[in-house]
Amino acid sequence: MQRRFVIVPAVPIEKESFQSGSRFYANTISGGFDVYDNQEKLRLKPSYPTRTLAEAACATMNESCRNPDELFIPMRTC
Asked: What is the 3-state secondary structure (H, E, C) of the chain?
């Protein structure tokens, strides 16, 4: 079981793209980290550039929610 707010990697940001034959390739950079709300099932904004900042924000959100000890089923990963 997981807490209400957890940290997830943000979607990578496309820096540049190029074509080789019929394929397209993209160079990406890390998008940082997002906080995911397990109750509402959505990513919260803003994104955080470092995991440390995201962990601090996540801890604050978990402490300030109505029931901080409530646990949720983990996200499915396929």
From this structure: CECCEEEEECCCEEEEEEEECCEEEEEEECCCEEEEECCCCEEEEEEECCHHHHHHHHHHHHHHCCCCCCCECCCCCC
Q: How many domains does the chain have?
A: 1
- Domain range enclosing 48: 5-64
Query: How does pLDDT run across 13-67, given as a tens digit for each residue?
Result: 878 887 888 888 888 888 899 999 888 889 988 889 999 999 999 999 888 877 7
pTM above 0.85, yes or no: no
Q: What is the identity of the amino acid at 48?
A: Y
Q: Is residue 33 part of a domain?
A: yes
* Rounded to 5°, angle at Cα 61 from 50 and 28: 30
Question: Mean pLDDT of all residues in the chain?
Answer: 83
The residue type of 22 is S
